[in-house]
Amino acid sequence: MILVTGATGLVGSHLIVKLLQEKEEVKAIFRDKKSFTAVENIFRFYNADNLFEKINWIKADITDIPSLEEAFKGVTKVYHCAAFISFDPKDEDELMKVNLEGTANIVNCCLDFNIEKLCYVSSVAALGDPLDTQIIINEETEYNPEKLHSEYSISKYAAEMEVWRGFQEGLKVVIVNPGVIFGYGFPYNGSSTFIKAIKKGNPFYTKGKFGIIAVEDVVNCMITLMKHNINGERFTLVAENPTYEKILNLVAETLKVKKPFIYASKSFLSFAWRFDWFLSLIMRKKRILTKATSKALHSTKEFDNTKIKETLNYHFIEIDDYLKKLLKSF
């Protein structure tokens, strides 16, 4: 029996479809049945409606140990996909509670229930910080806590430390560090914010780079890594490192809307994140732009996918064609 946390999210929902298609028995954690609608849409997307009823749904919360103990009964492998994603510094407590404390609970349950193997979905945000003279980030790049990081990055890095603790205590683990994940479903969350921004007429662009990957690639790599005799390893999951300008233009062209036409320079963003902080303070609204995110928008660093490609002999989906097909659903 396989347990999937975060089963009602983008990665988790696509993952359970694939697992069920491979005849695996799946337990899936949920907190609110309202989220089932999005998952059912994913199953319809794969023409796998009949498999939805095969899911063994368990109402639980990764921050609530008693509910997890019930979920772990009869389980042999765990995919930990649950996470809280926010780049607003005001959400620091929630980020640490869900991402750090929640992951520590999962690791402890894995040890207590003698789980065979754990796959943890981390993020490229938890990868290291290259020297100023370097442009490549890989699994071995050292994380520098003295550098500027978002609260999300810090929480995911801390969560990885809990997974490595479990590894030291005898738990078999594998960690994946995906870039920005695109995929069908959840049009109002995550990577879909790129698409929403362009549809609303966002005029700004930068030439910074970011890692990008299709959700199908993330899921395929996770399942294959769990089947292999791979233990105590982490893998960067990034298909390409395009510029924000390229992706925003591709979205605009496909949707037949106006392309971003104002270059947001470093100095412009330096003013913008401070102004956004001021607005959030007086209007008590969530931050749209922070110092860390404004810095990331101009980063020219690239994420190296050599390790996963060579380990699994894996070939990633070509992003341009994938996004054009995905955008039809919008």
Automatic annotation (TrEMBL):
It holds the Pfam family Epimerase. InterPro entries: Epimerase_deHydtase (IPR001509), NAD(P)-bd_dom_sf (IPR036291), NAD(P)-dependent_oxidoreduct (IPR051783). Gene3D superfamilies: NAD(P)-binding Rossmann-like Domain. Residues 2-233 form the NAD-dependent epimerase/dehydratase domain. SUPFAM superfamilies: NAD(P)-binding Rossmann-fold domains. This is NAD-dependent epimerase. It comes from Flavobacterium okayamense.
